[in-house]
Structure formats: structure tokens, C-alpha cells
């Protein structure tokens, strides 16, 4: 193995030893079950690690990541993860987390061809096209940030309209979906105000979140 990979094993052994020393019983408790309250749907980008950003430990957040944090209704991978999280783990919160300076979003905006991922990023271009009028009124440098936020809002809506969430809410299960954006430049999460706790609240939250984005970028504020 290369030195670059060897060091991962060395760091892993050190982490395991440190955890066992500082937190006796930590791993034996983990073996018994995972009972996370949270599901994180985020971008694959290496700068956006769910646990570190939120200070959560192993066992506390169930994670699904893909390029540009997209939730497509025919994606069995994402849907299976969401179903498992909702129906078996009974998570209380699902957060869709986009980030600024997202390569997938930038590629979608600029029509950059990167390969097979073009077909995946097409979903973000659908978001771009849906909000073409708004984006057209935003200065070019700020369009990627605006599209990152719009993409999160649209993906929250996609989670909310999935059969998994509709069934959960019909059963009376309490689970709320949130839309957040992570700032690679400052390490902070922004709440986009897109919280959905049932089918009835989707349209109101969606309209408010889109209006908020329009005002934020039209005003030239951060
Ligand atoms: Zn990204």
C-alpha cells in the first residue's frame, strides 16, 4: 500500500484507541444499535463532512451524499436510504444540505461538460431553468450561490413529495425536512427557512423560501 493510504490505518488505530480510553463502552454501545435522530442528504464534496460540521458522533446522523445533493424520484439509492431512515430508524429530522462553491452547481450553471455526471447535473439545470427569470436578474458572480440555495429548496420539495414522506405523514409520524446551505468559506450552516413537517406545509414553505432567496440576492446582501 502507498504511504498515503497507510497513514489512514495509523490514524484509525489512534482514533480507536483514543475513543476507547476517553469513552469506555463507546464501541460496545454502538454495536448494539444505531438510533440517530437525523438524516443528512448532502453533496459528495470532501469539504462538507456531515458529522464534523454538526459536532455529531458515530451513530447520531444517517448520511446520504451525492453530487450536488440531488433527490430524484426514480433514484432507488436515495429513496431506499430515506425509507430506511424514516421507517426503520425513525429519524425526526431530514436535512438537505447544499453548499456554496459547489462544483456540480457551477457546472450546471455554466453548461460545463464533465462526463457521465452531465446527466446527473441535468437535474440541477432543471432547477436553473425553472428559476431562469430570477437568476437572470442576479449578477453573474452571485448566481452560483443563488442556484445552490434554489437547488436545496427544490430538493427538499422532492423529499417532501416522495411516497416515503407522504406515507409517513399519513401515519401521523413526526418528521420534518429542513433546507440548509454550508459555507465552505466560513464553516457555517445557513438555514434557508425551508422547513416542511407535512404535505400541507410544503407550498407555504416553498413560496416563502423562494421569496427569501429572491430578496436576498436582489438586495445584494450576504
Ligand atoms: Zn457540491
Walk me through this protein's architecture.
Helix 5 (103-110) packs across helix 6 (117-130) and helix 8 runs antiparallel to helix 10. This protein is an alpha/beta fold and 222 residues long. The N and C termini lie far apart (46 Å). It is globular and about 55 Å long. The model has no long low-confidence stretch (mean pLDDT 95). A hairpin with a 6-residue loop joins strand 4 and strand 5. The protein has ten helices and five strands. A five-stranded mixed β-sheet has the order 2-1-3-4-5. The chain has two domains: 1-32, no CATH class; 35-219, Carbonic anhydrase (Beta-carbonic Anhydrase, Chain A). Bound molecules: zinc ion. Zinc ion (ZN) is lined by residues 43, 45, 68, 99, 102-104.
Topology:
Blueprint: H1 3-22, H2 26-32, E1 38-43, H3 50-54, E2 61-66, H4 76-88, E3 93-99, H5 103-110, H6 117-130, H7 132-136, H8 143-160, H9 163-170, E4 176-182, E5 189-191, H10 202-219
Parallel strand pairs: 1-2, 1-3, 3-4
Antiparallel strand pairs: 4-5
The chain binds zinc ion.
- Please indicate the count of domains: 2
Number of strands: 5
CATH class category of the largest domain: Alpha Beta
CATH superfamily of the largest domain: Carbonic anhydrase
Low-confidence stretches: none
Which properties best describe this structure?
222 residues, binds zinc ion, alpha/beta, Beta-carbonic Anhydrase, Chain A
Amino acid at each position: 500500500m502507498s504511504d498515503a493510504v497507510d497513514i489512514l490505518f495509523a490514524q484509525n488505530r489512534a482514533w480507536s484507541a483514543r475513543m476507547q480510553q476517553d469513552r469506555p463502552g463507546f464501541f460496545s454501545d454502538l454495536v448494539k444499535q444505531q438510533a440517530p435522530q437525523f438524516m443528512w442528504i448532502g453533496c459528495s464534496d470532501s469539504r462538507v463532512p456531515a458529522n464534523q460540521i454538526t459536532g455529531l458522533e458515530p451513530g447520531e446522523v444517517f448520511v446520504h451524499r451525492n453530487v450536488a445533493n440531488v433527490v430524484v424520484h426514480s433514484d432507488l439509492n436515495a429513496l431506499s436510504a430515506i425509507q430506511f431512515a424514516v421507517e426503520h430508524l425513525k429519524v425526526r429530522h431530514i436535512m438537505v444540505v447544499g453548499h456554496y462553491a459547489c462544483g456540480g452547481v457551477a457546472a450546471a450553471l455554466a453548461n460545463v461538460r464533465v462526463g457521465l455526471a452531465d446527466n446527473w447535473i441535468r437535474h440541477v439545470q432543471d432547477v436553473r431553468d425553472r428559476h431562469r427569470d430570477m437568476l437572470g436578474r442576479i449578477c453573474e458572480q452571485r448566481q452560483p450561490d443563488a442556484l445552490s440555495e434554489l437547488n436545496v429548496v427544490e430538493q427538499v420539495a422532492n423529499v417532501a413529495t416522495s411516497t416515503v414522506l407522504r406515507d409517513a405523514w399519513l401515519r401521523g409520524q413526526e418528521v420534518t425536512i429542513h433546507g440548509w446551505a454550508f459555507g465552505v468559506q466560513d464553516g457555517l450552516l445557513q438555514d434557508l427557512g425551508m422547513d416542511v413537517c407535512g404535505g400541507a406545509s410544503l407550498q407555504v414553505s416553498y413560496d416563502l423560501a423562494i421569496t427569501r432567496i429572491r430578496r436576498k440576492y436582489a438586495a445584494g446582501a450576504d
